[in-house]
Specification:
The complex is a heterodimer. By secondary structure, chain A is mostly helical. Chain A is built from 10 helices and no strands. Chain B has helices at 2-25, 34-47, 52-82, 84-99, 105-113, 117-141, 145-153, 158-194, 201-210, 214-242. The chains are: A mainly alpha, B mainly alpha.
């Protein structure tokens, strides 16, 4: 079963690429509109050798990691407080919910005005997107904890710290990871948009550079790379989800 | 009690924002008081009325994109759920397209369709289609076996089985998908209007950002937020109306 599935998928990808190559070479013959896969690969090779690719990849990765890790810490902390204390939740909720419902992109111009066109503004974009998602999900996780677990903690005379550390946080873990997963996709979009708008390095910058110089193979290289990064990070999070919260069944996609 | 604290939070945040804007930062190119934003919003809504063309332009792109996404996403999701061959063949492509940040497609679409309505609708479409497709797929997949067996024992034909059982059972999932699609579609509108648009809320925000016109920028962001909340609520109501027997179902 698993193998037929894989074989079909593999054949479909191979066939699609072949069709693309034939279409691009024989029918359209227009590198600008649709470069064939072979010239996309050649372009990737060239970019990799010149070190240009490395520079942009590292810039985006750095921004992403900085923003994401601080967002995890702040998001879980504030989300925990929101879940535990009603008054804190009431105070935070209107602002957080508003922030959450505004499209990421609408914020980017403002953040660039405030924090400049360097790395900092992109880190802030990633931070804002991820922190809000993690906060809301952590709060939901802490709030919906099974009361019997808390009673168990009480009958075992766990200290408040132990209850938090051993009962509440593990119970909220699946929610926290859901928040992270939602954050990853949106944050990736956010960082690319911010780089497209104003930057001098990063994959978003590369995208803009390629499109403004009408270098279609380079443009497609960037698109394929972004697809690979997106898929990679989703897989990573899903693996983490299965490992950290195996009792929770995850969707196939 | 709950409502009071929320009110205090909103009011207190507003006052803090006002003080920050007027006393601490005091630079209208960085931050303006919420009063100025409200004033500007009022002016753009009722005095000069120049907000409406933007809203109109944005919403036409939005609705075209999301309707097209529904028309494509739902049948394709059903097809993938009912036929393993189609599912396995499309799966890798869908996963790749879904997990790529949508902005990456914008320059490519621009290259193909030019600065045109088609490009913008396509960007919104790409954002909306996957949550709808995935949820339709799941809806059809998780239809309770008992329902199908009941249908079989009544000797329903295939088409009637589809219409009477499979389709209604997957409605709540499709609606959840639509709810997710609204948020992504709005982001799509903002992205789309940033590439060579001359009107629309996204254009308004970017233009305001580039000319450091902070009040207009904030008005644009606020309108986006309101539209997002509105769309979300409307769909929630439809959801309760169309599938009252199911409270919470979501595939994120």
């Amino acid at each position: 079963m698993q193998r037929t599935e894989f074989r079909r998928g593999f054949l479909s990808v191979l066939g699609g690429l072949l069709l693309w190559e034939i279409l691009a070479r024989l029918l359209l013959e227009n590198e600008l509109l649709i470069p064939p896969p072979s010239s996309v690969i050649r372009s990737l090779w060239r970019l990799g050798l010149s070190g240009e690719l490395n520079r942009h990849l590292l810039a985006t990765l750095f921004e992403f990691v900085c923003g994401f890790s601080t967002a995890c810490v702040v998001g879980i902390l504030l989300g925990y407080l929101m879940g535990r204390y009603r008054w804190f939740d009431d105070l935070m909720e209107p602002w957080i919910a508003t922030l959450y419902s505004i499209p990421v992109i609408a914020f980017v111009p403002l953040i660039i005005i405030w924090f400049g066109i360097g790395l900092l503004s992109k880190i802030i974009v990633v931070f804002k997107i991820t922190a809000v998602a993690i906060m809301l999900n952590t709060a939901a996780g802490i709030k919906t904890i099974d009361p019997t677990l808390l009673e168990l903690a009480k009958s075992l005379r766990l200290s408040p710290w132990e209850t938090t550390y051993k009962i509440r946080l593990p119970a909220a873990l699946p929610y926290i990871i859901t928040g992270m997963r939602l954050g990853v996709g949106r944050a990736l979009l956010g960082v690319i948009v911010a780089e497209l708008m104003a930057a001098n390095a990063g994959l978003g910058y590369l995208l803009r550079d390629a499109s403004e110089t009408w270098d279609s193979p380079k443009l497609f290289v960037t698109v394929v790379l972004l697809a690979a990064i997106g898929m990679g990070s989703f897989t990573l999070i899903r693996k983490g989800e299965q490992k950290l919260a195996p009792w929770r069944e995850t969707a196939e996609w | 009690m709950k409502g009071i604290l929320k009110l205090i939070s909103i009011f207190g945040g507003g006052v803090l924002w006002h003080i920050l804007a007027t006393r601490v930062i005091n630079d209208s190119a960085l931050l303006v008081s919420p009063l100025v934003v409200i004033d500007k919003g009022y002016e753009m809504l009722f005095v000069t009325a120049d907000l409406y063309p933007h809203i109109y332009a944005s919403s036409s792109i939005f609705f075209l994109g999301i309707i097209l996404a529904t028309l494509v996403g739902v049948p394709l999701g059903f097809l993938m759920a009912l036929s393993p061959v189609v599912r396995d063949c499309l799966n890798p492509w869908m996963t790749a397209l879904y997990s790529t940040p949508r902005i990456a497609f914008a320059p490519v679409l621009l290259l193909w369709f030019g600065i045109d309505l088609a490009t913008k609708v396509a960007i919104v479409f790409l954002g909306c289609v996957f949550p709808i497709l995935i949820n339709s797929f799941y809806g059809m997949r998780v239809v309770s076996r008992e329902f199908v067996e009941v249908g079989r024992s009544f000797r329903l034909s295939r088409s009637r089985l589809f219409l009477k059982i499979l389709l209604p059972a997957s409605v709540p999932f499709i609606l959840s998908g639509l709810r997710l699609a609204v948020g992504r579609g709005l982001t799509g509108v903002a992205i789309a209007e940033w590439f060579g648009a001359t009107e629309g809320l996204g254009y308004m925000i970017f233009f305001a950002g580039q000319t450091l016109n902070i009040p207009v920028l904030f008005v644009g962001v606020a309108v986006f937020a309101l539209l997002g909340i509105l769309g979300f609520q409307v769909l929630k109501m439809i959801e309760e109306f169309a599938s009252p027997w199911r409270k919470e179902l979501e595939v994120k």
